[in-house]
Amino acid sequence: MKGKRTIILLTVMVTALLAALLAACAPEQYTIEFDPAGGTLDVSNMVVEEGVSLDLSAIIPEREGYEFGGWKDESGGAATLIVVNSDMKFTASWTPLASTVTYYVNGEVYASEERVTGEVFTPIEYAGEEGEFFGWYLDAAMTVKGASSITASPKSTALYGVFINDDNFANTFVYTSSQTAVTIEGIKAHAEVIYIPSSYDGLEVKVGRSAFENEESLKRIYVGAAVTIEEGAFAGSGVTDVYLNGGNYSIKNSALYNGNTLLFLLAGASGDYVVSDDTSEIAAYAFAGRKNITSVTIPSSVSAVGARAFADCEEGLKITLQALPGGNFHADWNCKSYDGEEKFSYVLHSSGKSDEGYVYVLRGGRAYILDYVGSESELVLPRTIDGCALVGIERAAFAENDESEIRITSIIFPDTLQYIGESAFSGCGYLTSVEFPLSLQSLGASAFAGCVSLDKAVFTSSSTIIAPAAFADCLSLSEVMLPSALKEIAEDMFANCSSLKEIKLPETLTAIGMGAFYASGIKQISIPASVESIEEHAFEQTGSIDDPESFGRPVVFVLTGGLNGREFDWDAITGGFPYEIKQNSCHGFLAKILVLW
Predict the structure, then answer these.
(1) What residues pair up with 229 in beta bridges, in sequence order?
(2) CA 277 centroid distance within chain
(3) Where is the signal peptide (predicted)?
């Protein structure tokens, strides 16, 4: 039994020894790696026994637009027949083939040139007739604009461009002309794509307000380098893509910008829209007709929102104001439809705070009132809100509250107030008098327009700037003390103030704007020697409205210092109504009377 076990053990040992000897005699195996260098190859590597010969010329990769130039070893030398004795790596070498670059302009071949595949080149410049070339694009639909450097494609490369001349312009657009510019007012036929050149007939091109309003078929526009686009030009249009040929405009966040002003939102935008943080203004009609937008967040960087910016948006549009110091947002104005009627409901979410009935925002240690939601009729505005000085009242903050249960009869402004925004108190039908603080620097357009019970307005500041129509339609206004350093009576400032029968103009005044005292109660007024211009209709129908005793009598203009070289078109100023001119000498006595009626 013992002998049998010995035999088995010896057999095992001999078998193991033979296996070891055979293994020692087997050839070594190595990995051969192939790098196609941009091409394609069915096999990227293979395992080969030591000593095997390989013919690399039989292994051929493929690469479009290139000719295979053989394999190179890791030292860069050419390799064809090899004997495997280690791990090896070989890289394909290529020679680029010719690539014909063809340039198409307005659908026709303009030029061609020879390049090689992969070559980076600068496209040729188009040198056509007078007009504007809109650059080279990589596709026939002209949706992918080529860069200043382009890489030649295998075999052939095609670039596409459009050139617009005066004939193209005249056949496409409805326009008006002035001495300096051509303004596009509309389009002659519905189109999906339009090209707007920088000039026509040697004049700069502008796209006027409402030029393409509600043109839903319009999808793509190409804008010349020097084109000016006015607010509302594409309100409610179907434009989803804008291609720019340079200039100040840019596309970001699905909107066209002019500098930092959001001019209009592209039709493809939808859902919750957040205005970019670097936006400073939102133009009039910027979001008009964008019914796919469910909410808009306006950042604190925005200081002004144009008229009817959200006209004809979807019912229930939510607008979040993060802050609008110095701004012009008010739901009653910005959320109306084109015809001025409010057809949609809007939810105004303001991140501004509310204190004692004032919705306000804080910025830079200053407070700005956005809205009044209180119930007091006799208001005393605070000097500070939340520890910050009150410096501004924003657009329409207290406007038209006579239509609600709130009836403001008096208001006292703090000595910190610097400006009162546009239409801030317009339509406050129960307000009887206002006195402005020394700190006030500017009074916005129509700030107190339509305050029919207002009978007195006093400025204590010498330098307040008063915007147009500030007191228009104040039917009871009879006493006004203007700023002593005022330089201009703005357009329509006291239009339809039928109770205003006299007013003292400051000696600093240089201009009286169009319709400034239209249909007011003025019967006689002294025009300071400093006044250099009086616009048309400034005193039309004055002194006769609602006053039978003065009907048909001339309005008397007393020219302090005489004409002194000044020329005024009195017929235009009075609108053809009777007037009388009196000239006073520098000594104050009557020098001449001229009656024209």
Answers:
(1) 207
(2) 13
(3) 1-26
Per the CATH hierarchy, to which homologous superfamily does domain 98-164 belong?
A: Listeria-Bacteroides repeat domain (2.60.40.4270)
CATH architecture for segment(s) 26-96: Sandwich (2.60)
Q: What gap in Å lies between CA 480 and CA 477, rounded to an integer?
A: 8
> Which H, E and C letters describe 198-259, residue by residue?
CEECCEEEEECCCCCCCCCCCCEEEECCCCEECCCCCCCCCCCEEEECCCCEEEECCEEEEC
Residues 325, 303 contacting (CB under 8 angstroms): yes
Give the C-alpha separation, 26 to 76, whole Å.
Answer: 32
422 contacts 446 by C-beta, under 8 angstroms: yes
The 3-state DSSP class for residue 69 equals strand
537-576 tens-digit pLDDT: 999 988 754 555 555 567 888 888 777 778 899 999 998 8
Q: How far apart are CA 523 and CA 547, in angstroms?
A: 11
For residues 194 and 168, the answer to whether their CB atoms sit within 8 Å is: no
Phi and psi of 347, rounded to 5°? -110, 115
Distances (CA, A) of 452 to 38, 412, 439: 81, 19, 26
The reported pLDDT for the residue numbered 297 is 87
**pLDDT-based confidence at 596, cuts 50/70/90?**
very low
Residue 227 phi, psi dihedral angles, 5° rounding: -70, 140
Angle at 440 between CA 435 and CA 442, to 5 degrees: 110
CATH number of 354-486: 3.80.10.10
Query: Alpha-carbon torsion 226, 230, 233, 239, what sign?
Result: positive
What is the Cα gyration radius of the chain? 40
C-alpha distances out from residue 118 to 3, 95, 137, 144, 366, Å: 81, 10, 18, 19, 60
DSSP 162: -
Band the pLDDT of 454: cuts 50, 70, 90: very high
Cβ contact 487:509 at 8 Å: yes
Residue from 471, 493, 556, 492 nearest 522 by CA: 556
Asked if residue 251 lies in contact with residue 239, where contact means CB atoms within 8 angstroms, the answer is no
pLDDT tens per residue across span 479-531: 999 999 999 999 999 999 999 999 999 999 999 999 999 999 998 999 999 99
**Rounded alpha-carbon distances, angstroms, from residue 231 to 57, 241, 299:** 68, 18, 20
What is the Cα–Cα distance from 353 to 361, expressed in whole angstroms?
6
Please give the model's pTM, rounded to 2 decimal places.
0.57
Q: Give every CB contact of residue 112 below 8 A, 6+ residues apart in sequence.
A: 100, 101, 102, 103
Q: Are 482 and 490 in contact (CB under 8 A)?
A: no
Residues 6 or more apart whose CB falls under 8 angstroms from that of 204 comprise: 180, 181, 182, 198, 226, 228
Average pLDDT over residues 105-118: 94
Q: What are phi and psi of 56, to 5 degrees?
A: -70, -20
In degrees, rounded to 5, the angle at the alpha carbon of residue 582 between the alpha carbons of residues 591 and 535 is 135
**200 compared with 588, residue with greater pLDDT:** 200
Decide if 119 contacts 151 (C-beta within 8 A): yes
Q: Which residues pair with 593 in a beta bridge?
A: 582
Q: Which of 128, 28, 126, 38 is nearest to 85 (CA)?
A: 28
Residues 6+ apart with CB under 8 A from 237: 212, 213, 214, 215, 216, 218, 267, 289
